[in-house]
Amino acid sequence: VHPAGEREAVPTKLLCIPVLCAPLAAVLLVFGWFQPREHVASSRIELRVPPAAVWALITDHPGMTAWRTGLEKVERGPDQDGKPVWIETSGFGPMPLCVHAMEPPRPSRLLIAADDLGFGRTWTYEIEPAGPRSGTPTAPAAEGSGCRLTITEDGFVDSILFRALGPFMGGHHAAMDQYLRDLATALDQSAEPVHV
User: Fold this and answer.
1) What is the pLDDT of residues 122-135, one digit of tens each?
2) pTM to 2 decimal places
3) In sequence order, which residues have a C-beta less than 8 Å from that of residue 35 and are 6 or more positions away?
4) CA-CA distance, 67 to 105, in Å (whole number)?
5) pLDDT tens, position by position, 8-45
């Protein structure tokens, strides 16, 4: 049997939790309030493969489950305004993506095809030949020996809380960087994305 004083101490300790958490929540909300709703961010990698090899991977939506981290399933959804939609399912749930442009060698565009998520984004993929690599007088540089892939995210986040937490979860580059690392690994390479 606990003395009466000990029985009363437990609720008092429990009351301290919201008292201590409230200022932290307030700071987060204020921080989120001052974060911009809209953003533009770009990440880039250089690869030792021709542009066609990269193009083949990024346009094979069902095949992405074999190389993208956390992607569980990709299935075809109903078209949106005559444009194809793919539904990607990960640990965060299903996300419909509409392919707005996918014609090489022009930049391709992929956007979230849902209005009820509280956030949205367009990813624009640009694949360019990397140009000649440095060589020596006896071993000249090879033309077309690689390419660079740049992904630009043009997005928005409505939730003030998500805006506050975003910088602590890798920021706006996190998803693009993971995608690019996975892509490099799928091509048997190691490349660290550069923010441009």
Assistant:
1) 899 999 988 654 44
2) 0.75
3) 157, 160, 163, 164, 166, 167
4) 23
5) 555 666 666 766 676 766 666 665 666 778 889 999 99
